């Protein structure tokens, strides 16, 4: 992802790379040269870079997100951070508190929101009135090797957050509860559960069904999944790769034209720059985006405990853990000032 971001930065005329931080300085220099960034300064920590920067893009592994992000925020630098915000909800809440304490923006790059087909799909769904049911099927068979093969819940923890975050964007709503059944087919090459069926209840009673597998050879879906929405004025479908389709009760099938906006991480970067310039708050700012991670944590808990799990319970328990953890006093003061469900948007 570091190389992908270097290429994306180079292709965006609104930004300029002024420094790289990496534990492997030689690798960073080679990557910079190979992506057209020449002799950009490199250091092993942010404090070691003596450059005039306006923001930081954090592409470290999730376990390093909190420390790296906090260093940048308290240096006065807004941060665009790769998903997931953190390895767990408690850490994600502390990162959101650090952003509030510093006064700098922390935005999470949920890159799959930035597909033009998905934006068309959102527009179509918004025209269909009240939504009853949303489903997404995700069936792929990647042989990654490495850490994913050894994870307890590779599909839910490493991949499903894309879909869970997307359905929040699609509905403009937040989840209430989930029941999830995770399992591992007999032919799976993963050690942990590589398949799952999850049923979420959203506000207003909308149901979202997620059916996925990472060991499903043949007839694979898009990496974005295959979506269907049933609503009061019709049905819309999106295969994840092409324009969506729609059929309304009045017989019309029109789909709005694509805006042809930047996609994936290029879209994240463009939105980040736009919000910094206008001093506005993006939909994926830290406190709100913690809910997407809470969906993952709740689904895993449900699968392990074989019971429905309330999203609010996951967030409340994570908040209690965050407050009891040894944090920077500025972060802790902000955490203690919160009503956490209000802060993340789960309570009116």
Automatic annotation (TrEMBL):
Q: What's one Pfam family the UniProt record gives for this protein?
A: GFO_IDH_MocA
List, for all copies, the residue spans of the domain called GFO/IDH/MocA-like oxidoreductase.
126-236
Q: Which GO terms describe its molecular function?
A: nucleotide binding
From the record, give the transmembrane residue ranges.
none
Q: Superkingdom, according to UniProt?
A: Bacteria
InterPro entries, A to Z: Gfo/Idh/MocA-like_OxRdtase_N (IPR000683), Gfo/Idh/MocA_oxidoreduct (IPR051317), GFO_IDH_MocA-like_dom (IPR055170), NAD(P)-bd_dom_sf (IPR036291)
Database matches in Gene3D superfamilies = Dihydrodipicolinate Reductase, domain 2, NAD(P)-binding Rossmann-like Domain
Gfo/Idh/MocA-like oxidoreductase N-terminal domain mapped to chain residues? 12-108
**Protein name, as recorded:** Gfo/Idh/MocA family oxidoreductase
Q: Which organism is it from?
A: Microlunatus elymi
Q: What is the lineage of its organism?
A: Bacteria, Bacillati, Actinomycetota, Actinomycetes, Propionibacteriales
């Amino acid at each position: 992802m570091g190389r992908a971001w270097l290429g994306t930065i180079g292709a965006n005329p609104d930004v300029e790379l002024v420094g790289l931080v990496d534990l492997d300085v030689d690798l960073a220099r080679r990557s910079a040269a190979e992506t057209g960034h020449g002799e950009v300064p490199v250091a092993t920590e942010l404090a070691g870079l003596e450059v005039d920067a306006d923001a930081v893009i954090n592409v470290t592994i999730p376990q390093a997100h909190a420390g790296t992000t906090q260093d940048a925020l308290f240096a006065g630098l807004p941060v665009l951070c790769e998903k997931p915000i953190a390895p767990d909800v408690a850490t994600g809440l502390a990162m959101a508190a650090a952003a509030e304490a510093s006064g700098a923006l922390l935005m999470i790059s949920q890159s799959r929101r930035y597909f033009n087909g998905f934006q068309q799909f959102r527009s179509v769904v918004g025209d269909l009135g009240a939504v009853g049911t949303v489903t997404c099927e995700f069936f792929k068979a990647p042989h990654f090797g490495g850490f994913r093969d050894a994870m307890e819940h590779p599909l839910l923890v490493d991949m499903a957050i894309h879909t869970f975050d997307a359905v929040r964007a699609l509905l403009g709503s937040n989840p209430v509860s989930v029941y999830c059944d995770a399992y591992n087919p007999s032919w799976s090459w993963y050690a942990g559960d590589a398949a799952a069926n999850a049923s979420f209840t959203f506000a207003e009673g909308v149901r979202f069904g997620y059916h996925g597998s990472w060991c499903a050879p043949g007839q694979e879906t898009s990496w974005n999944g295959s979506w269907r929405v049933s609503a009061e004025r019709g049905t819309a479908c999106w295969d994840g790769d092409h324009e969506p389709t729609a059929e309304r009760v009045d017989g019309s099938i029109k789909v709005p034209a694509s805006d042809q906006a930047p996609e994936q991480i290029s879209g994240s970067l463009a939105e980040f720059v736009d919000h910094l310039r206008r001093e506005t708050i993006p939909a994926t700012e830290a406190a709100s985006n913690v809910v997407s991670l809470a969906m993952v944590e709740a689904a895993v808990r449900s699968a392990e405990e074989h019971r429905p799990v309330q999203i609010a319970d996951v967030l409340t328990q994570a908040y209690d853990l965050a407050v009891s953890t040894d944090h920077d006093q500025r972060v802790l003061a902000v955490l203690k000032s919160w009503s956490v469900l209000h802060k993340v948007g789960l309570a009116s």
